[in-house]
Amino acid sequence: MAGFVNVRRDVDDKFYRYRMPVLLTKIEGKGNGIKTVVPNMSDVARALSRPPTYPTKFFGSELGAQTSVDEKNDRYIVNGAHDARRLRELLDAFIDKFVLCGSCKNPETDLIVTKNEMIVRDCKACGERTGVDMRHRLSTYIIKNPPKKKNKASKGGHAEAPSPSGEANGAVGAGENDEAETGDDDEMTKRIKAEALVLNPESQLADEGWSADTSSDAVKARVGAISAGVANLGLSGGGDDESDEDADSPYTQLGNWVKENAGVNAVEVFKKVQDLGIEKKHKAVQVLAQTLFTSDIITEIPDYIPVFQKMVTSEKHQKSMLGGIERLAGVEYPDLIAVIPKILMEFYQADVLEEDVLTSWGTHVSKKYVDKETSRKVRKASEPFLKWLAEAEDDDDDDED
């Protein structure tokens, strides 16, 4: 039975939490048909939170050898005879280039392929996003075969590596967004943004009665409504362990603090959330989406993307965030309903909101966060973006066919 080694083999601490199985090799065939099989490649890759095809292709690239992958039968082969020591050295090189954080050297990272086809290592330990060597042949393969999305319910989670005794030893496989990587928009993105830009309160939305009453009485009423909304944030989200229905709840404190410190930077926002002990709570995401932004949200979003990338770790978080956006646009700044497509696009491109969640949200009117009519208006305004999502998915399916 194979033993276990530290993911970073330069670390000799026997209590180092990141462990992986020792890479095994088996020589098969002879003559021109000789090949090296890696029987436990799947186990090694799982401990690194990488697809097993990545290290296999890396070996082939470094050795100048052809590789064969049979995922169905769990066989990963490198042509030629290669001893285990050499492949373990190459595995260390793969870990250094495509697993370890470029900043803190922690292996708890995820590979992310950005919209402009760059690859970054997103570190869950220090929060930094560091690039990989895009000149390496494996980078081209990763772009064409990006990592599959994690299960939404466990986004950012990592399986524990088994100990030699077969029990979990707390070792977390390297595993997933803080400043957003943005590049040139493709044509479809440009088109949806252009469509969103022409939407305004005087357009069809206004014709359907979606324009805002800007009289002083109406403004006062909306301010009162949003203040009441902040005071009762605990009633609109539901589901957290503690009771939030009083003015002293951490969510009310957070909402009031953000309002009192308008323009505060992202680092201070996250520090405040941590101080309140709610950095993992989905309702905290709702509060921030509802209170951090003003009517100038499109220019403000990039400043706070790191906060949401850090805190939005599940489908429930995403739904709460969308609820906060509904309240922001539907109650406090009704004029923002016209730019809902642009708002959703910004968060989607930053990998904060996922396609499946957005599609489901767009087709189900809800009165959980706002009244039903306002919910309907927000979703109606989002239709150009949702249509673009559907068309982009269809294009991807056509390409695969």
Q: How would you sum up this structure, described in words?
A:
The protein has 2 domains: 4-162, 2-Layer Sandwich (Defensin A-like); 187-400, Alpha Horseshoe (Serine Threonine Protein Phosphatase 5, Tetratricopeptide repeat). The strands form 4 sheets. A 4-stranded antiparallel β-sheet has the order 3-4-6-5, with helices on one face. Strands 7-8-9 form a 3-stranded antiparallel β-sheet. Strands 1-2 form a two-stranded antiparallel sheet. It is of the alpha+beta class. Helix 10 crosses helix 12 (297-311). Helices cover 47% and strands 10% of the residues. The two termini are 42 Å apart.
Query: What is the name of the CATH architecture of the largest domain?
Result: Alpha Horseshoe
How many separate helices?
17
Please give the largest β-sheet: 4 strands, antiparallel
Assembly state here? single chain
Mind telling me the C-alpha Rg? 25 Å
Low-confidence stretches: 152-185, 198-212, 230-245
Report the helical percentage: 40-55%
Mean pLDDT: 79
The CATH class of the largest domain turns out to be Mainly Alpha
How many domains is the backbone divided into? 2
- What is the chain-wise order of helices and strands? EEEEHHEEHEEEHEEHHHHHHHHHHHHH
Strand proportion, as a percent range, falls in: 5-15%
> What is the name of the CATH topology of the largest domain?
Serine Threonine Protein Phosphatase 5, Tetratricopeptide repeat
* Sheet with the most strands: spatial strand order: 3-4-6-5
GO molecular function, one term: translation initiation factor activity
Biased composition (Low complexity): 166-175
Biased composition (Acidic residues): 176-187
Domain W2: 241-399
